[in-house]
Specification:
322 residues; six-stranded antiparallel beta sheet; 30% strand; D-amino Acid Aminotransferase, Chain A, domain 1; 9 helices; alpha+beta; single chain
């Protein structure tokens, strides 16, 4: 088989996704070799990938070091898995056109999506439904404060008193303050948009049943035309490309009220559920990288995954098969 080399950026825990990339490549007549760019070599993905010692995303020489890594391992595709890696991958692709394929849009769009205040303002300008944003004065609703540049539900503050609101407002520029919807259902939508032409090729909604540390551990695909319609509007209005994860909230107290919570322009941790259900994001990525025909992928509803802990063993810093 012909070979294809894929570099994960921050794919430390993405063992199942690494296997799915390998399977997708085989179906297309390729043998995929996976590498993962990490600051720690002892990470779970080592059981499926060669772990490459990397820089931190904010390091001054990270782009130069990434370029040397691409050359050293003859990388064909770069796939970012964490927020800080998305803009980096996009900048690398822009600086080295045609050298590798990156399933992402511009770093400017990524930066806007990862700034919750800027993202909410953009959604409002585009007429996209989001929870009401609090600015000043006496609140007329329950509120929640989200760190402006936070992720994985870290640092969120539920505001239940004027005193708490006053404390948050002392650092108001660091937070997005919105209405808090307590009686809700959360949906995640895994998407793929053609990097070259902007065609929406996969939109797979799934319900988040259980999350641990901000990452889903139990999720099931659902049939939700409303979620699909809203997500497509977001993708097209914002000009997103590549792998995208859209987080939605369904307000169970108001019939038909579906809102955008946030957008992450990268593969989500629970995207394996959508892949198993038929929205084969790894195959779409590899197909576009190879210049093959792309067709729309539909996920079947009712496919559920439940995650569990599994050990990966290292001896003297080297991965060891059990």
């Amino acid at each position: 088989m012909k070979g294809i080399r894929i570099l994960f950026l921050g794919g430390a825990k993405r063992v199942s996704m690494a296997r799915m990339f390998k399977s997708a490549a085989r179906r297309l007549g390729y043998e995929a070799e996976i590498f993962s760019y990490e600051t720690d070599e002892c990470v779970p993905v080592a059981c499926e990938a060669t772990v490459v010692p990397g820089r931190r995303w904010a390091d001054a020489d990270v782009l130069e070091h990434l370029d040397s890594t691409v050359d050293r391992y003859s990388i064909d595709i770069i796939v970012p898995f964490v927020d800080g890696a998305v803009g980096l991958a996009a900048d690398y692709a822009a600086a080295h056109p045609g050298k590798v394929f990156v399933p992402a849009g511009s770093s400017e769009v990524a930066e806007q999506m990862f700034d919750k205040v800027k993202a909410a303002e953009l959604f409002e300008r585009k007429g996209i439904a989001v929870p009401a944003t609090y600015h000043q004065g006496d609140p007329c609703m329950r509120l929640i404060a989200k760190p402006r540049h936070g992720s994985a539900s870290k640092g969120i503050i539920e505001i239940s008193s004027i005193e708490t609101l006053s404390d948050v407002m002392l650092h108001g520029d660091d937070y997005l303050i919105q209405e808090r919807i307590d009686n809700r259902r959360e949906l995640t939508v895994d998407c793929y948009v053609g990097v070259a032409d902007g065609r929406v090729l996969a939109v797979s909604p799934r319900r988040r049943n259980v999350t641990v540390g901000g990452e889903v551990s139990d999720t099931v695909t659902v049939d939700s035309p409303a979620a699909v319609d809203l997500t497509v509007k977001v993708l097209q209005s914002v000009g997103l490309r590549g792998a995208v994860t859209v987080q939605l909230i369904e307000d169970l107290d108001v019939a038909g009220r579906l809102l955008v919570m946030e957008v992450n322009p990268r593969l989500g941790g629970g995207a394996v559920c959508s892949v198993i259900a038929g929205a084969d994001l790894p195959e779409l990525i590899i197909r576009e990288a190879l210049g093959l025909e792309l067709d729309r992928r539909q996920a079947a509803p009712g496919v559920r995954i439940c995650r569990y802990m599994q050990e990966v063993v290292f001896v003297n810093g080297k991965y060891c098969e059990l």
